[in-house]
Structures are given as C-alpha cells and as structure tokens.
Amino acid sequence: MMEKSMRMTIVVLVLVAIAAEIPRIVQLAPGYTPPLGISQQGVALKQTLQTEEATNRKVAQMNAQLQSAIAAVENHLLVMQRDYTQHLQDLAQRGLIQLSNGS
C-alpha cells in the first residue's frame, strides 16, 4: 500500500514539474507572443493616448490655419468687390457705361 502511495506521489510530482515547464516550452514555439501584462497594457494605452493627443493638437493647428486662410480669402474678395464697384462707378461717371439699379 505504501509503495502504491509513493508511486502516486512521484507521478503527481512529475506531472506538476511538467505543468510548471509548459509556459517555458510554449515560449520557445516559433511565432509565440506573450500576452500583455497589466503594466504593458498601461504603457500601450499611454502611448495610444499620447499619439491621439498629438494628432488632436495637429488637427487643431491645421484648423486654425484653415480658418485664417478662409478669413484672408474673404477679406480679399471684399477688397476686390469694393475695387470693382469703384471702377464701375468711375466708368459710369465718365459716361462710358450706364449702370442700372438691379432691374
């Protein structure tokens, strides 16, 4: 009886030893990538957040530049409209053209 109990104990110990080595054996397999631990996940999330923040800053900067460009174009169009209106009025004063009142 004692011998059977001793054999079972040895078998259990061997199985435990094999089970303890399974993760190391798996790591040796080609293409194996270990799962991310909590700290690695935190680093990955922090990097993603930093990338998104940098992208948001760049988008905000580009938006400001675009708004500035739109304002410059609007101002230029107003100046052109004013100059064109003045030119037409000058031509009308010289009698070269006749302006209508929108009819």
Describe the structure.
The protein is rod-shaped. It has a domain at 55-97. The longest helix has 56 residues, at 38-93. It is an all-alpha fold. The model has no long low-confidence stretch (mean pLDDT 84). It has helices at residues 2-27, 38-93. The N and C termini lie far apart (119 Å).
Radius of gyration: 40 Å
Q: How many strand units?
A: 0
Give the averaged pLDDT, no decimals: 84
Largest sheet: none
Shape: rod-shaped
Beta-strand content estimate: under 5%
Helix and strand composition category: mainly alpha
- Count of individual helical segments: 2
End-to-end CA span: 119 Å
Low-pLDDT segments, ≥5 res: none
The percent range for helix content is over 70%
Keywords for this structure?
rod-shaped, 80% helix, mainly alpha, 103 residues
Quick overview of this protein structure:
The chain has 103 residues and is an all-alpha fold. The protein contains 2 helices and no strands. The N and C termini lie far apart (119 Å).
Write the layout of secondary structure elements.
Layout: H1 2-27, H2 38-93
